Amino acid sequence: MSYRDEQGIHTDFKERMTYSDYLDLDAILNSQNRLSDHHDEMLFIVIHQVSELWIKLTLHELEAAVQSIQEEDYQPAFKMLARVSSIQNQIIKAWDVLSTMTPSEYLGFRDYLGNASGFQSYQYRLVEFALGYKTPHVLKIYEKDPELKARLQEAYEAPGLYDVAIQALAKEGFEIDQSVLERDLTETYEANDSVERAWIEVYRDPERYWNLYQLAEKLVDIEDWMQQWRFRHMKTVERIIGHKQGTGGSSGVGYLKQVLDHYFFPELWNVRTSL
Ligand code: HEM
Ligand SMILES: N[C@@H](CC(=O)c1ccccc1NC=O)C(=O)O
């Protein structure tokens, strides 16, 4: 006879549940569809799929962290942001595996990729948006997919991690320019003196502003790892395709070098000089 356990779960449901069903492994493990019969295409697909899965978890954590910070519930936010950094560290290690692929091996199946490119990774754009980097041209790619476009548009207009961190500074009593507090969220965040002055105070007296100080350092961790990911991507691309044009239509390595110049949380880096 079937009955419920102390958590209200049916025992016959428990008996039916399996490892594969729970994890939907059929869907996941039947999604490595090579277009060529080149041995290394499997590596290429798997690296991208695991990266996208980690990015999915990153977004889940970032969205919840933004909400916690807005609610001034800092401890859970710190935990989630620490997890994001740990995931970033994990994805960066994937470049070591991918680098075992030589230029000749990649060229053996590159043509099959057509115009597909990491440039089209919408999850990567959602991370950039969550970090306040709002580049409008990336939205155009998704015109043909209204559902996806709507999700991106929403994130594009929403406050990012740094916006809520700056609101936290204002809630603590720091004088932050209205132009920042009421900024157009669809623009990429730009450095502001009142924000830098506030962070300087926080860094001069960490004990007094312990939550804000911890928050700042978590943001620096995330930006630091993000830059390391971008750098390893650029270098891996250089060792595999040199300065060839990208399948997405960009200059390739030149473009990837250029995005490295962008700072997500500029004042947190400036503060190091100003202190
Ligand atoms: C052989 C390996 C790889 C090569 C040769 C490569 C090459 C490139 C190039 C040339 C671009 C510039 C856009 C273009 O014109 O196509 C690009 C962008 C991008 N790639 Fe890769 N990539 C590789 C692996 C990866 C992996 C493993 C990921 C992880 C998900 C990834 C994610 C991205 C993302 C997110 C962008 C957009 C970057 C931006 O706009 O800032 N790529 N890639
Ligand atoms: N942009 C790459 C192609 C590429 O890397 C790619 C192609 C399809 C799916 C994911 C990719 N990865 C990252 O850009 C190239 O120019 O070779």
From TrEMBL:
NCBIfam families, alphabetized: trp_2_3_diox (TIGR03036)
GO molecular function, one term: L-tryptophan 2,3-dioxygenase activity
Catalytic activity: L-tryptophan + O2 = N-formyl-L-kynurenine
Record flagged with keyword Heme: yes
Oxidoreductase listed as a keyword: yes
Cofactor note: Binds 1 heme group per subunit.
A Pfam family the protein falls into: Trp_dioxygenase
Protein's UniProt name: Tryptophan 2,3-dioxygenase
Residues the entry annotates as binding heme: 233
SUPFAM superfamilies, alphabetized: Indolic compounds 2,3-dioxygenase-like
Binding partners and assembly: Homotetramer.
Stored PANTHER family: TRYPTOPHAN 2,3-DIOXYGENASE (PTHR10138)
Pathway field: Amino-acid degradation; L-tryptophan degradation via kynurenine pathway; L-kynurenine from L-tryptophan: step 1/2
Keywords for this protein: Dioxygenase, Heme, Iron, Metal-binding, Oxidoreductase, Tryptophan catabolism
Function summary: Heme-dependent dioxygenase that catalyzes the oxidative cleavage of the L-tryptophan (L-Trp) pyrrole ring and converts L-tryptophan to N-formyl-L-kynurenine. Catalyzes the oxidative cleavage of the indole moiety.
HAMAP family xrefs: T23O
Source species of the chain: Alkalibacillus flavidus
